[in-house]
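Colleagues,

Please find the record for the two-part complex below.
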Amino acid sequence: MNSILTSKWSKVFVFLLALTPAAMLAWQLFTGHLGPDPVATLQHGTGDWTLRFLIFTLFITPLRKMLKLPQLIRFRRMLGLFAFFYVCLHFLTYLGPDQSFDFAGMLKDVGKRPFITVGFAGFVLLIPLAITSTAGMIRRMGGKRWRILHRLVYVTAILGVIHYYWLVKSDHRKPLTYGAFVAALLLWRAGAWIVDRRKRKVAGSVPVAEPPTAETA
Amino acid sequence: MIIKRASDLKYSDVTPKSVYLNRRKFLATAAVGGGALLAGRAVWDLLSPSTRAAAATQLSVALKSPFSTTEPETSYDDVTHYNNFYEFGTDKADPAKNAQNFLTSPWSVKVDGEVERPRKFSMDEIFKLAPLEERIYRHRCVEGWSIVVPWIGYSLSVIANLVQPKPTAKFVAFESYYSPNQMPLGQKAGIQLPYAEGLRLDEAMNPLTLVCVGMYGGTLPNQDGAPVRMVIPWKYGFKSIKSIVRIKFVKDQPPSTWNIQNSHEYGFYSNVNPNVDHPRWSQAKERRLGEFFKRPTLMFNGYGDQVASMYAGMDLRKYF
């Protein structure tokens, strides 16, 4: 298992796998198989995959701790960047076909429609995370500040679910499913944080400073 | 605090050098890829033959209505594979799949309430109550997309004149067929079923209001509301209730499904109106299926000449 996870081919494999939904959508677009409303299919498809990749990203830390597979961290940045990749495509399907690339009109719409406001906010919050995703940026920022900044992904995941929930007319099963995943993953973190704090208290009044690494976020 | 340790992630891990294609290789790959795309399209077409409903029977259309638009019709394939018919699932592609075995025969429509001659019409009778007209209408969904459909039917006033509404009749209530056995997904739709709709009496008597028994020259496919539905072209699509089993003339404004679901978002009138937005999205524009950019939505969906007078003096922001 370890050697599979640390093999450089595992990353290539995950990369290609993560690219598959986009490739499928592109394929269907060029072959005319996106259905009667291709724009809506693209909007829903890229939106779905954004939420899925946010959830995959949030799964990494619980999985590596529960399964004791620290090597899983190798995939987290890639999955996070794929969430950003899909949200960019999602945003383009809105800015282009819906708003005809009219930036002023788009901003007006963003201000007026709560579900778009929320979705747009979630998208904007991911931009600094994508920019600071390089090793150089982590070094420059320092692990502690970098980790705090990257907690914004929790906010984006919540906003993403609200965005979807508010869009749906009556059948809320899908947004609620995403919501359940996000809630469980965030609750796990809250639980882990409480357990961690207790342990530190038991260990002594002086907290032991662990050497911070990018891995502990 | 500065991290001294370098991250274990390197870009070369993500994309190994062997994959950084040189230009010649890239071009070759692109050519092969293009060929594969064409071949794939052929294979895809083989694997997913058009699921066009085989059951549609040709109807003899006696006249072409002057109410018809000259705009290009939306393809039959799109109109039969992009449906909001929540009894058969909430995804647009669901009804085409799940309504295949919907039993629409025998079928009858009960017409009663505040009328002199209540009666039940069999489907055979409904097909013959009046000469069938083809009416090519614009159809605008509240969600912001639209289609142009050649419907077949006749004005609802034909049926009204047969049952003779009493002076006490002020509204008309419509009810769809609902059976959890035939429509198991209805329970998950999140709306109250059977589906119900309503019109004011003058709206019901407007010649544009169509009792629809077919489209594109044939009978209605199940997913489009077989065997008989309403089409009210100046209102959002959800007012055009499908698979009707009852038409009741009533004294008071009847309940309607989406209004029950959320009265703040879906009014009883629900006239197409680009100036009154849905609380969650704009109604100023719509996407015609088959087009990329949105087009402006027309007041009363472009049927103002025929219907605007019915709403003279009404605050359409209040009565949305």
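The CA atoms of residues 86 and 189 of chain B lie 6 Å apart.

Comments are welcome before we finalize the supplementary table.
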